[in-house]
């Protein structure tokens, strides 16, 4: 069953990379934020980010992450074995996607949208966990379909593009 899925994985490398990128972007968008606003009650500075800033930064995170994962994936042979796919997920894919999720989460969320951004990133985390626990899923189709639906509708279009 795995060998049947492997040709699809190798034949759809651009799709897989786009999906990975979208995941990264979605994670980035959920956590972006660099502008500061001071509260009137104290001198504490609270990070705030507009939705436009969040989306721009999140999409950039996914785009950069897709490029890195693409380079790592290009080292795989055309018909990778189960062991090679597992090693790729453990050494590059999993850590790369996790980094994207973490970077997007670190951005913060636009005012009033913390719950939405958190939900999107939680779905990305769940999708990643599924792949980490069963690397063969990469060969069976787009890995971040659930995340992509939420992220794309929110504006994180560079993450999981072909999911």
Q: If you had to describe this structure to a student in words, what would you say it looks like?
A:
This protein has six helices and two strands; from the N terminus they run H-H-E-E-H-H-H-H. With 163 residues, it is mainly α. It has one domain (2-154). Strands 1-2 form a two-stranded antiparallel sheet. Helix 3 packs antiparallel against helix 4 (82-106) and helix 5 (114-133) runs antiparallel to helix 6. The longest helix has 25 residues, at 82-106. The protein is elongated and about 45 Å long. The two termini are 22 Å apart. The model is unreliable at 1-45 (pLDDT under 50).
Short description:
With 163 residues, this protein is mainly α.
Label the structural class.
mainly alpha
| Total domain count | 1
Low-confidence stretches: 1-45
Shape assignment? elongated
Helical region count?
6
What portion of residues belong to β-strands?
under 5%
Please give the share of residues in helix. Answer: 55-70%
Side by side, the strands of the main sheet go: 1-2
The number of strands is 2
Q: Which whole number gives the mean pLDDT?
A: 78
Tell me the major beta sheet: 2 strands, antiparallel
Order of SSEs: HHEEHHHH
Report how far apart the termini are: 22 Å
Based on CA atoms alone, the radius of gyration comes out at: 17 Å
